[in-house]
Design brief:
450 residues; alpha/beta; Rossmann fold; ABC transporter involved in vitamin B12 uptake, BtuC; 2 domains; 4-stranded parallel β-sheet; two-stranded antiparallel sheet; 19 helices
């Protein structure tokens, strides 16, 4: 592979390289030792005791009192009983002295122990050490201390963390789909964060007003969400009209819309909260909560929705005439017009789509947080533009890929997750994202000269 070919490949796939490098870095940085104490660890520990004692064990089960202690100790007891072993007792204790009292009781009753099953934390307690037991309670024998085997793994690479990374950033990724189309046409939309907020508040307000009881039903939620999406699409369409018909720069139009939508969200929230302050407008609905917090086959709903939308957008941009028109308008609008491309209609579509997708993100936000937050989506335009530009879309227009935007959104999500794990403050994250946009734009300029 020639040097020129390598440079061309890196230029087109730099975001993927960056994403892989970030994942590798955070995986190594969060590599640590784990001491399991769940039900599966309990069953494995019990099988180990049975195997080493030929099923004739007398076992005391001890675990520090916690939310997961019962699952751990019950799994051990059930497995031991099924294997024919004797369970001398099960303890959920808050301090080591309680273990001493139980050992004294067992000693006075004439019991003998062959094993003590516990977790890593309790195994460090003095009263459970075999030599201490042999010294203070010789009638119990010298029981062996059994602890689940520890293992090393990356905190970043755990399934729960990876799903949280995707779910917590699904709204940014969804908005980035619309922003990609806008930027490919050489435009920009700074209003997406505020439109997210107004959509969330409208959904909550309408859902409450439509509800006939204490909570909103499926129909109420559907109508409220549809109304919010429609109004957001219209706000995007308004942006498009101002850009196409009145030749107002997209930066100015969307900056104005950003302030209008944010102010409207705050005003609407004040009018619909008992305190008369811009607080969250609560919406009680189990069906609505499921949209943003539910799971299908173990995958969070926002992640599934994000994946479906990216697949649809990818097909739209790569397999349809509309997609080709969007690229043509961004590359050279005058040449596109002379070629028969409906430039105005294309621009109206991309701005309306961007508004609708921001509105959809607002509905998701309201569902996840139990209501419309008027301050939701603050500085989202920064994160969305960063995702699009880092994903390889050129701010000059005419160039970009939907799947590249997905990669860019994942990069933003991974960076945010890593900074959160490291305890970095929100204002420091703003600096990071700002620098990231600058670096991505500089790279775009360099790439154009290669």
């Amino acid at each position: 592979m020639s040097g020129k070919a390598v440079r061309h490949w890196l230029a087109n796939n730099a975001s993927i390289v960056v994403l892989v490098a970030l994942c590798a870095y955070y995986s190594a940085a969060t590599w640590e030792e784990y001491h399991p104490s769940d039900a599966s660890a309990g069953r494995a520990l019990a099988r180990r005791i049975l195997g080493e004692s030929d099923g004739r064990a007398s076992v005391l089960i001890v675990a520090p009192a916690s939310r997961d202690a019962a699952a751990f100790t019950d799994a051990i007891a059930d497995e031991l009983s099924a294997g024919g072993a004797s369970v001398a007792g099960t303890l959920h204790i808050t301090e080591p002295i309680e273990a001493t009292r139980e050992l004294r009781r067992l000693s006075e009753s004439g019991a003998r122990l062959t094993a003590i099953a516990t977790n890593q934390r309790a195994s460090q307690w003095g009263p459970l050490q075999p030599d201490r037991i042999a010294e203070k309670f010789p009638t119990l024998g010298t029981p062996e201390l059994y602890v689940p085997a520890s293992y090393h793994w990356s905190r970043f690479l755990t399934r729960d963390n990876l799903l949280n990374v995707l779910a917590n950033n699904a709204d940014v990724a969804i908005i980035a789909i619309g922003m990609t189309m806008v930027i490919i046409t050489a435009g920009i939309d700074l209003s997406v964060g505020s439109i997210l907020a107004i959509a969330a508040v409208i959904t909550a307000v309408c859902g409450r007003r439509l509800a006939s009881g204490a909570s909103a039903g499926t129909f109420d939620v559907a109508v409220a969400a549809a109304l919010a999406l429609g109004l957001c699409a219209l706000s995007g369409l308004f942006n498009g009209v101002m850009v196409t018909k009145f030749r107002v720069p997209a930066f100015i139009v969307t900056l104005s819309m950003m302030m209008i939508a944010r102010g409207a969200a705050l005003k609407l929230a004040v009018a619909n909260t008992e305190a008369g302050t811009p607080e969250t407008v609560r919406l009680t609905s189990s069906q609505f909560d499921w949209i943003g917090n539910g799971y299908v086959a173990g995958i969070p709903n926002p992640v599934i929705l994000m994946a479906v939308l990216f697949a649809v957008a990818h097909v739209l941009m790569t397999r349809t005439a509309l997609g080709r028109y969007i690229y043509a308008v961004g590359g050279n609008p005058e040449a596109a017009r002379l070629s028969g491309v409906p430039v105005t209609a294309v621009l109206l579509f991309v701005y309306a789509a961007c508004g609708a997708l921001a509105g959809l993100a607002g509905v998701l936000d309201a569902s996840r947080f139990g209501g419309g937050r008027p301050n939701a989506g603050e500085l989202y335009e920064l994160r969305v533009i960063a995702a699009v530009v880092v994903g390889g879309t050129s701010l000059a227009g005419g160039e970009g890929r939907i799947l590249g935007t997905l990669t860019g959104a994942l990069i933003i999500a991974v960076i945010a997750n890593g900074l959160n794990m490291a305890g970095v403050q929100s204002y420091d994250r703003m600096i990071v994202f700002g620098v990231l946009i600058l670096v991505a734009v500089l790279f775009d300029q360099v790439k154009r000269k290669m």
